[in-house]
Each structure stands twice: as C-alpha cells, then as structure tokens.
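Following the same procedure, backbone shapes were mapped to integers, yielding the entry below.
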Amino acid sequence: MSSVLPESEEKVLELIGHMRKMSTRIVLFQQNAAHSLGVIHTDLKTADILNEKGPITAGELAKLTGLTTGTVTALIDRLEQAGFVRREKDPHDGRRVIIVPVKEKQKTIGALYKPLGTMTREVCEAYTPEQLDLINTFLSRMVGVFEQANSAVSGPKPDDGCCKNGRSERHEYE
C-alpha cells in the first residue's frame, strides 16, 4: 500500500514518467556512445563497472553484472580486443587472472561523455545547494531501489540467444 498523500500522487506519477523517459534516453545515449567506440552497450557499461571497481576477476564481474560466466568471458574478449581491458595475473595469487581497465581508454570514454557532463552542470546551475542536496539524496536512494530491483529479477540466466561466439547478433564491429 502506498503512503503517498492523494494530493502528491499526481506529482509522483509525473516523476515516474520523467524517470522512465530519462532512463530510455540514457540507454539510447549509451548505445550510441558504445557504437562510436566500436563496442556494444553491455560492453561499455561493463567497462564502466571495471573503471569504478578496479581490477577484479571474471567471476566477480559476472556477479556484479548478473551475466553468466560464459557471457562474461566473451564480453572480456571483446573489451580486450577493443583495448578497454587487459588480463593480468593476480599479484596476490598467481593462479588467478584479473581484468584490469586500461587507463588510456578511460580517457577516451571520458572525452565522449564530457559534453553530457557540461550540459548536466548547466542544468544543475539552476538549483540551490539545498535543492541539489535533495536531488542527490533522491538519486542515491533510487540507485538502491534499482539495486534491489535487479536482485529481485536476477537468477539463473538462460542462454537467450543474444550473443553467439562472443558477438552480438545485432552489432558486428570489425
């Protein structure tokens, strides 16, 4: 049962609608950004996770993304071929291999996102520090909501036919 006051319900529905639209635009931007870098959307977002987390194993990456280990292996192969990551022996356990993000490619990705960052800053200039605190609190809580939602829908991943031989059927980049 919702605890939203009736007079707020319209505003909440409006907010949810804007979030849905923004989510769609984010996905489209990510797809276009990935395409311009010669990779697919999932690869770019995984590179982002690696840049955020730092060197990790393929198994850890599979847990973070919710992808199967086989899918992650193909994904890492594509990222390595595109120069976004490299495989290295774990300095603490030579039996393990860690996936290391390539710093130079992080700069390439950063340059691609710079105009979006500039436009976001321009939008933020219209708000007071207190309003930005409120927006940041809301967005931080929504990150938690999406983490919970992802956990709720994740489980064993069947082979959905999305990728074969490490390549997306919809996007071929040579």
In short: Residues 8-154 form a domain with the Arc Repressor Mutant, subunit A fold (CATH 1.10.10.10). The CA atoms of residues 27 and 41 lie 8 Å apart. The first strand starts at residue 56 and ends at 57. Helices lie at 6-36, 41-53, 58-65, 69-81, 103-124, 129-153.
